[in-house]
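WARN no homologs supplied; continuing
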Amino acid sequence: MKRRIGLIVIGLLLAVALGFGLRPTPVPVQTARVRQGPLQVIVEEEGRTRIDDRYTVSAPVSAHLRRIVLKAGDVVEKGQVVAELEAPRPTLLDDRTRVELEAREAAARATLGRAEAAAALAVIERDRARRLSESGTVSDQERDQAETRAEEALAARRTAEAELASVLAARAEAAGRDGDHPVVDVMRAPVGGHVLAVHRQSAGPVAAGEPLLDLGDLDQLDIVVDVLSRDAVRIRPGTRVLLDQWGRDEPLEAEVTRVAPAGRTVVSALGVEEQRVPVEARITSPRSAWEALGDSYRVLARFIVWEDGDVLVAPAAALFRTDDGWAAFVVRDGRAELTPVEAGRHAGLRVQILGGLAEGDEVIVHPSREVAPGVRVRPEPDSR
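OK structure emitted
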């Protein structure tokens, strides 16, 4: 009898051990807690700083520029002389040009000599015709013809004098006889601020309209960010902006001032066409906090398009789509329980929960295919 009872006990123990051996192994999972806390929906893009009002000083006429002593970063006052222009320098003569100018001068002098002789003779004939006309010896018509010939001769003499003067001026300029090269114009700063860039520092000839240097006030910095058009519709003037990765650990505060009404097509580094919209923002942090920033510096702009200080938040990796909407696996009594979820705003790695989950619920993050409703699960040691 005792032997029989012993066999029964052994059989029961073997059955229990076999049952535990055949029992499915719990699926290892990572989990996280649903918590109450703040949430921000952020649009993040790289941007750059830009002077609010940038002034380019250009040469008004073709001239010879004196060397600009100012350098980028120098402070200038409104009305300060920033550049000086001289009359254009003469060109150098080669032998052929010199001979041609000498020949032109000789021809002009000869022409002038003939014109002067013809004019003197025409004047004498005019005066004689006037005297004879008074005594009735010649007709009025003959007198008028003499006066016309005299006027034509005098005009020809003036033309010859002008031609000779032109040739002499050309020779004088080419020979460099214009002397001291006086200043013909000075360029003054239209606004007080800083020199941002010097486009032409060395002395030399400049063309009309050629840019010489850029001026601007570094105390008036804007932020310009090109955002995707689908994100631009969520950004409005007054939207709060955090500026990060600008060179210091503390982020700067800014505020959107303008969203451009038109976008433009930009090809990304991957060769994808994107519609980008320029968004401008003004830094609102104290000037002392960003005094090291300059023009065209890189910043990382985070546009806060929505925020709430107290909402129910779950990891975005715990939610997935089903036929009925969003859902998540909640760990209850060591098993995965499929729970429909009403999701609100998505903020990158976190999602606002409007229904289906409660604070403190343990949800499975990145559920694998092995996770199914009712499956036993085992949170891993590094679970969040």
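Residues 259 and 279 are 5 Å apart (CA to CA).
OK
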